Amino acid sequence: MRSMLSLMILSSCCLLLTGCWDRKELNQLAITSATSIDWDGKVWTVSYQVVIPQSIANPNTGGSPGQQAPVMVFSTSGGSIRGAVQQSSLEMPRSLFFAHNRIVVIGENAAKEGISQLLDVYLRNSDSRETVSILVTHGEGRKILEQIIPLEKVPGAAIKNMIKNEEKNGSNFKQIMMYQFMMGISGDSPFTLVPEIIISGEGENDTIASLKKTFFTNKLKLGKMAVFNKDKLIGWITPHDSYGISWIRDTIQHTTLFFGCSKDNKDVKAALRVDRSKSSMKPILSRDGSLIMHVDVKAVGTLNESACPNDPTQPMDLQAIEQNASAEIANLMSDGFRSAVQEKADVFHFADLIHKHHPKLWKQLKPNWEEQFANLQLETNVQVKISRIGMSGKSFMEMTKDTGD
């Protein structure tokens, strides 16, 4: 009798647990591929790039007169970011679904005000993904979401792929995801870099009719790097200096290095495709008590362009080309370091290294680290190895000279 009663109780409990009480059908959701955050001095404005499923699924693309845009963009405002999101239920027939959100574009005014509320939203809500990429723009973030991008149906996904492609093949910019941003501003040096996205050219590609053209007067492209101190924007760094910072921070994956035929020669005539690169940093105390940050860089690549008189098939000439490439990397790192010092921003997180290697010294430096960082010396040691010279030895110009003789 007791076992029968227990079985009945367990069966009743199972009945209470069955069913998908919180389920949501796909036709009840508005899938968001990108969002933006703007601030006008009084309220937060959140913009959403919502995918239109019937347009994405339509195989007949090409900008026909009746074709619908692949996405729609709308905005809501409120005293807080989550309050602004709540306002979407007043004008949307579907619930916003953020699990497929790819990017967050932050307007300049919002970035200067501080994005701590945005970070808090991503930490507290289960429907937000910390792997979303952060970008900054000089104007309003909504303008970026409104742009139609060729080759890709969903602009939000296209921008995500753009920064991933640059990170993998160019390495001038590094993709910053939400969790990486949080980690970057949580250390001893609360500085981090965020890529800028801009509308380059004249006009805007915000209609489906623009896809009928074979050329565009403007396009979305990556611009500078925004410097954040904790959650606030404090300055900008040029792509050239950002490239040098990437060499110091060991964020180079694959890139093409351009350099001259001799050291410090600005007349670029050679290019090296860097296949592998490794940078290591170590703080060193000199005899006079000054602090030196020593950076070792080792790079291996393929020579894929050369208009210099050097013959890379000859060991001495090949060594000279390697030295020229090494000098160019050293110059890039020096320029990037000077730019960071001007902004008084330890974007390299040297503070974390000093804390690790010299904890007692760090206690003395921590109260006025920004001033100490400005007095820090950078020492570089770069070694470039050319593993392949391509299918030719001398440059084409040199070979034609030999033929003329």
Automatic annotation (TrEMBL):
Chain ranges of the Spore germination protein N-terminal domain: 22-189
Spore germination GerAC-like C-terminal domain span: 224-390
GO term, biological process aspect, one: spore germination
Superkingdom of the source species: Bacteria
Gene Ontology CC: one annotated term: membrane
Topology with respect to the bilayer: Lipid-anchor
Principal subcellular localization: membrane
Localization terms from the record: Membrane
UniProtKB keywords: Germination, Lipoprotein, Membrane, Palmitate, Signal
InterPro entries membership: GerAC_N (IPR057336), Spore_GerAC-like (IPR008844), Spore_GerAC-like_C (IPR046953), Spore_GerAC_C_sf (IPR038501)
Family the entry assigns: Belongs to the GerABKC lipoprotein family.
Protein name, as recorded: Uncharacterized protein
Organism annotation: Paenibacillus pectinilyticus
